[in-house]
Amino acid sequence: MPEIGDDLPPGERPMVAVVRAVPGHEEQLAAAIATLTAAVRREPGCREFRSFSDVANPGVFYLYEIYASTDAFRAHLKTAHVAHFFTELARHSTTDATALVQLAELQVS
Fold first, then answer.
1. Where is the ABM domain (predicted)?
2. SS3 of 41, please?
3. How many domains does the chain have?
4. CA distances from 82 to 55, 78, 86, 108 (A)
5. Is residue 1 assigned to a domain?
6. Is position 5 within any domain?
7. Which of 102, 87, 22 is nearest to 61 (CA)?
8. Has residue 86 been placed in a domain?
9. Along the 109 residues of the chain, how does pLDDT read in single tens digits?
10. What phi and psi values does residue 89 have, to the nearest 5 degrees?
């Protein structure tokens, strides 16, 4: 599971993860991501969860996530569907929790 520090900016919690399939496991990983996507979208603290496949690199997936707050993201990590996804991730991906990148939105004037 990702480590969530107390130093994240307040407010909405945007992030992105890059997930790479083990060769030959692309379909299994895509199915696990699709299942996760549907479940996370039903979480009360989820503002947005979108999953993408890389057109130029089959087997590479991008997960774009926004949670209402850091606490909403912490609650997300405690769900059964996330625990199941991490089990699938270990089976079908070369990626671990370090693939998750916390984002801070640039202020535009």
1. 13-103
2. coil
3. 1
4. 25, 7, 6, 34
5. no
6. no
7. 22
8. yes
9. 666 767 777 778 999 999 999 999 999 999 999 999 999 999 999 999 999 999 999 899 999 999 999 999 999 999 999 999 999 999 999 987 677 888 888 888 8
10. -60, -45
CA-based end-to-end distance of the chain? 36
Q: How buried is 93 (Cβ within 10 angstroms: 0-12 exposed, 13-18 middle, 19+ buried)?
A: buried
Amino acid at the residue 24: G
Q: Tell me 13's DSSP state.
A: E
Look up the domain containing 44 and give its range: 20-98
CATH classification of the domain holding 36: 3.30.70.100
User: Which candidate, 104, 89, 83, 102, places its Cα nearest to that of 19?
Assistant: 89
